[in-house]
Amino acid sequence: MTSTTYRSPLLDLPGAAPLQDTEALIDATGVAWHYGDPLGEQRRAHSGVVVVDRSHRRVVQVTGPDTEEFLNNLLSQKFLDTAEGFGASALDLDMQGRVLHHADVVRTAEGVLLDVPSAQLESFLSFLQKMVFWSQVEVAEAELAVLTLLGASGDVALPAAVVASRQVDWSAVERRDLLVPRSELKAVVAELRAAGVEPAGLMAFTAERVRALEPERAADLDEKSIPHEVPSFIGRGDRAGAVHLEKGCYRGQETVARVENLGRSPRVLVMLQLDGSAPENPTPGSDIAGPAGGRALGRIGTVVDDCDFGPIALALIKRSALTGQELCVGDVAVMVDPASLPEEQGEQAGRAAVNRLRGR
Predict the structure, then answer these.
(1) Predicted TM-score (pTM) above 0.85
(2) Contact, 314 vs 301, CB < 8 A?
(3) Which CATH superfamily is 9-57+143-211 part of?
(4) How many of the other CB atoms lie within 10 Å of CB of 306?
């Protein structure tokens, strides 16, 4: 499959409609955006369970006796001593700590599976393969597809064809990702439907992703983005996130450590409420400005209609703009959702040490 030619077999289900907006920037090629009732499909996830086709994502498999150490030395997540079923995310950063790739991961009995947006597969796979050197690992694309259960799925019996599953720790409706052989995609969904789990389009998933402040790199980040701009990326407490703060030995860790211990990122990812009376939603990538225009205060990312909030969006915005001031994207008024504001972590250890040396 390729990102430009892929067509999911689930597009043959009744009512299936792909995303038509070519400016959305969302990775949605070849899967259903909805099945005829987009807002209703999202709402059903809050009262039951739905299955979302995310088979347009691509999966990399790493196997071999050095798998844990190999990935631990390259990516921001801690892979050492992880148990089968461990699920989290991981980032590949450049030397300046900027985000190059964002993968969801799950530990299996054979190794580790990492799924990425289709447009990132080639560069991510190439990076991992070039870093093998003398490590006893094999890195290859796996013919697996991603399905996501939204809703309380604890009582749902998983089809036998499911290769791996991960419970995703995010702040929106309960989410469980399934990895299944591509050849079994239709059969797995048919079995889930027979158990009462109806399909929902990627629009429902995207709305929940925005609620959870979970970015998609192409739509919501840019070439300057660093991990601390996305608070959910940083593993804290029982949440694994995408960045483990107590490990090193990966490219870009110096930036992570510096921001964690000495300062804050100048920008942060938040959710915006959009003026629903506007004739058109803003285009992802557009600048966010104050009411009088002037310099850009941030950029808007994923824009989607939510079953409860109407039009919402993710945005990377300067912390100086998080003061309740009126904001706009073109002619559309927007407001930072207060619930999406980052929690303050208190004085950083490094900053406290500096202040003590300065006698403050």
Answers:
(1) yes
(2) yes
(3) Probable tRNA modification gtpase trme; domain 1 (3.30.1360.120)
(4) 22
